[in-house]
Amino acid sequence: MTHPAQPKASHFINGAYVEDTSGTAIPVIYAATGEQIASVHAATPAIVEQALASGKAAQQAWAAMTGMERGRILRRAADIMRDRNHDLSVLETYDTGKPLQETLVADATSGADALEYFGGLAASLTGEHIQLGEDWVYTIREALGLCVGIGAWNYPTQIACWKGAPALACGNTMVFKPSEATPLCALQVAEILHEAGLPAGVFNVVQGLGDVGAALVTDPRVNKVSLTGSAPTGKKVYAAAAAGMKHVTMELGGKSPLIIFDDADIDNAVGGAINGNFYSSGQVCSNGTRVFVQKGIKEKFLARLAERVGAAVIGDPLDEATSFGPMVNEAQMNIVLGYIEKGKSEGARLICGGARCDMPGWYLQPTVFADVTDEMTIAREEIFGPVMSVLEFDSEDEVVARANATEFGLSAGVFTKDFARAHRVIGQLEAGSCFINSYNDAPVEAPFGGVKASGVGRENSKEALKHFSQVKSVYVRMGDVEAAF
Ligand code: NAD
Asked: Which residues in the chain show pLDDT less than 50?
């Protein structure tokens, strides 16, 4: 019998499901069992062409609709997503392995928030009027044209919506390529948008690996590329986009600092560290994986942390009691196991976890290392798994310098009861998305994105609209033209 996760076809182009079985098969393996539950095919050059041509053909008519009309469709899609939250959450769990306890509140709901928020803003996209004596200039905020969205595997529904919603609100069309590791959810987003009334061709989904992404990025019809992925992929995609002088948004990886001062509320700080390291089994770009704890409370913090991590419920992701699921796939599990071994061999002190779970599927134990030093591999490289590094510090100046000593700059957090210090420290941290006495909140109203090697541009909030539109300025002369000859 066909598994319920099996999609109707691999791609969604010009308002309909499309199949081309001559493309390489991409199996979908359920991370909790290791069993294949579905299969899609990578886009062939003919499929890529069909998607780009349909996105290009649909763009002008979509941009010519009023913002109110475009927004109404996005908001209708948000309502459909919320109505189907349970089924979409189960699919997200099959796609990623993340526990239903999380997907019920973080994926389709967050996608719906983006559709509702940008749907609501679509009608208020305006230019400005600049009076210059009797002459004047007016500006028009225009769509960029055809956009390409490329996703990572940790939040397949959310990423499709975080890119699609602002792009479409501005009058762009999109071809979206999900990660080959999680190809299922973006197809549902496309289907729901069309049910809500989206014209054919405005939002298309094609499957494939990096070569399909590269073919999309280099096509001359494409005006903008928005990637969520690792920093090495980001460098390649940014360079390819630059060759065609295309706009980019790059949402890349991180190695973010979470700084806990002596005066912090210990339980809140431990909660922040848990949210910033073990949610989605650590597969979150903004995670605060370098937890700097001030000397005076370090042992107390570690003891409380070990106790609370021990309460994680590891098991069947479809059981709502489960709070910690498997890694997305075997390859990622092995990468993380390699880092755990490095942590041990480079002399970090293992507080808890440190091994694969003795059960089917790609489960790792939530792992905490203490006595981590700045030079250790686990403190320098993005692991993208449930491995927390705890580092000790003495003074504020010292921790700020050490927190900033990384190529990355996605997020940063501070826990302290001293608000003057909290703002002073956040002000000095090189990061795009910061938290005070919290960690990893990502409401659609707040700009999200990184500095340094963590990215370019911002998603969410009104900022995202600037990255999916451009300004045309028009000088209007009311009198005669003076010329030199
Ligand atoms: P990845 O870089 O391996 O792949 C990302 C996407 O890029 C995939 O869809 C892949 O097929 C595609 N791709 C690969 N090579 C390409 C090329 N040459 N041209 C065009 N497309 C190409 O990343 P991943 O392993 O899927 O995801 C994990 C990474 O994503 C982590 O580094 C994580 O930090 C990052 N991430 C960042 C954010 C953010 O918002 N900043 C969010 C989630 C994940």
From this structure: none
Reply yes or no on whether 459 is catalytic: yes
The finding on whether 151 has its CB within 6 A of some atom of ligand 1 is yes
Known catalytic membership, residue 452: no
Cβ(408) – ligand 1 distance below 6 Å? no
Centre of ligand 1 to C-alpha 11, Å, is 20
Q: Evaluate the CA torsion angle 95, 101, 105, 106 in order and state its sign.
A: negative
Task: Dump pLDDT digits (tens) for 50-83.
Answer: 999 999 999 999 999 999 999 999 999 999 999 9
- Residue with CA nearest ligand 1 atom 40: 251
Structure tokens at 463: 């900022």
> Residue type for 386, please?
P
CA of 75 to the centre of ligand 1 (A): 28
How far apart CA 182 and CA 180 sit, in angstroms, is: 6
Q: Which pLDDT belongs to residue 391? A: 98
Return the ligand 1 atom nearest residue 181 CA. Answer: 26
Q: What is the pTM of this model?
A: 0.97
pLDDT in the model for residue 417: 98
Q: d(Cα 208, Cα 23) in Å, to the nearest integer? A: 9
Which residue shows structure tokens 């996760």? 5
Torsion angle, alpha carbons of 32, 33, 39, 43, to 10: 50
The reply to whether 251 belongs to the active site is: yes
